[in-house]
Amino acid sequence: QVRLVESGGGLVQAGGSLRLSCTASGSGLSIAAMAWHRQAPGKQRELVASITPGGNTYYSDSVRGRFTISRDDAKNTVSLQRNSLKPEDTAVYYCNGRGTHYSGKALSSFDSWGQGAQVAVSS
Q1: What's the angle, vertex CA 97, arms to CA 56 and CA 83, rounded to 5?
Q2: Which region holds residue 36: left if phi is over 0, alpha if psi is between -120 and 50, else beta?
């Protein structure tokens, strides 16, 4: 079983910064794509940013230029540095990771989510 745990949520004033981190744990992990999604109250979950093993990144239009995604494969960690935060960035942020791991002696694929980290931006 692969587990993803987020940290770094909280309350911040508009214009401030926060950094989210997500660490994956499991046996024989090989993580491919890692991503951050968010879900604001009353809205659908949306993709915010993603990063490939080679470091190629994607950002949604709403966060491009303000958010930076990075990964540390040695630590199985993905981070999201968020600057110039706006009230509309208020949401629960979810980490997502896909790849392979060992379940017993069998190699299996996984597509796992973290439990979510609440971020609130006050105006």
Answers
A1: 60
A2: beta
Give pLDDT tens digits for 8-35.
989 999 999 999 999 999 988 999 999 9
| 3 state SS of 39 | strand
Phi then psi for residue 89, to 5 deg, are -85, -5
Q: What is the DSSP string of 51-117?
A: E-TT--EEE-TTTTTTEEEEEETTTTEEEEEE-S--GGG-EEEEEEEEEEEEETTEEEEEEEE---E
46 membership: H or E segment, kind and range: strand 46-51
Instruction: Evaluate whether 79 touches 21 at the Cβ level (below 8 Å).
Output: yes
**Alpha carbon distance 28, 59 (integer Å):** 29
Q: Provide DSSP, 2-32.
A: -EEEEE--EEEETT--EEEEEEEE-TT-EEE
Average pLDDT over residues 36-49: 96
Are 96 and 40 contacting, i.e. CB atoms less than 8 angstroms apart? no
Instruction: Quote the tokens at residue 25.
Output: 């744990």
